[in-house]
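Continuing from the previous page of notes. For each protein in this section, the sequence appears first, followed by its structure tokens. Read the first protein now.
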Amino acid sequence: MRMKTFEELGFPGRLIAVEGLDGSGKSTQIYLLKRWLELEGLKVFFTEWNSSALVKNATSKGKKRELLTPTTFSLIHATDFADRYERQLVPLLRAGYLVLCDRYIFTAFARDTVRGCPPEWVRGIYDFAALPDLTFFFRANLEISLTRILDGRPQLKYFEAGMDLRLSSDPYESFRIFQGRILEQYLAMSTEFKFLVIDGNQPIEAQQTVVRDLVASKIDLARFMRKPLEKK
């Protein structure tokens, strides 16, 4: 049975998600979208992957000690998502908010599958979740993504580079192999889930213009205006 979007399920709110490789620029783009929507006076809520207070500390400790197997990695992220979905996303969408997600279930579909978890099993874990109303996929070249990451810090993170998979002893080569495989998963999903593909190699401003135009054309933003008493 085909999964439904929040709009198709009758929710008054709308959910917009961004996906992409590490360093693709998706987080920058959704932050800029958030600020624009807020300045327009709309009811907006932002959430990001792996941010639930319920499991964040456990995830951090597991990563630092390199204790997470592909299965535990998958389950702990699913727990994080389920907690935020029930406590934040669904209530706010019922309250008529625009909810912005920096990564959604597609991150798990891609990463966990590449790490060796059965695709059907991974999807089954998230079968309680509705689909976003809009999903932007920022497609950037691997070298550009790598450069962007290293512009902000001196080295790659262990799991970010896929070092747990023993793809290469060189973290940079491991990153290219790991992220390249994740890209293949995203591209395979792009038609199935109707991703709006954005050229992540373009300048930040050019990408943001495309994103805003698409959001404004596909969502009736006037419905999400704050009432006078709701203004900050």
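Done with the first. The second protein uses the same format. Note its length before scrolling.
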Amino acid sequence: MIRELGAADVTSPDFVPLLREAVTVPDAELHRIIADEFPLLSVIGVGEPVLAFAAFAYRCSATVVEYVAVSASHRGQGWGRALIDAIRARHPDAAVVADTDDDAVEFYERLGFSIEAAAVDPRWPERQRYRCRLAPLVGEPNAATSCDPLAGSTTP
């Protein structure tokens, strides 16, 4: 059952290793993400302790996936797809977008996202980046705006 995650969930000792699955940074940076970024995002997950989660925000007429991870022991069971489906259900008239690298681009491809090369991220200049986009569930795809929903995105 997918549920909203609260502060107790994301600050539990079991959550940091799961967040590490989504972003490869030192532990101090993982704790900063939890303290500074998660309060500004919607965070949903599965299980107690949490075995899969997604953190996202609605920006510029799109739902932006900032972080998504499934514990290694629970991969292949559909939890990643279920999380993306739950995100889409929040704003069915909005595209879902994410930036990622080679570690997760296949996940997004399997879910039907269109994939295109993205600009180099100065934090990881050696990594190929991808912009992933999934059309809205209902209505017409959002018209292009001067706003980039991934500008300022924190996803590594």
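What the second structure shows: The chain has one domain: 2-134. The helical segments are 7-10, 15-22, 27-37, 79-90, 105-110. We return to this in next week's lecture.
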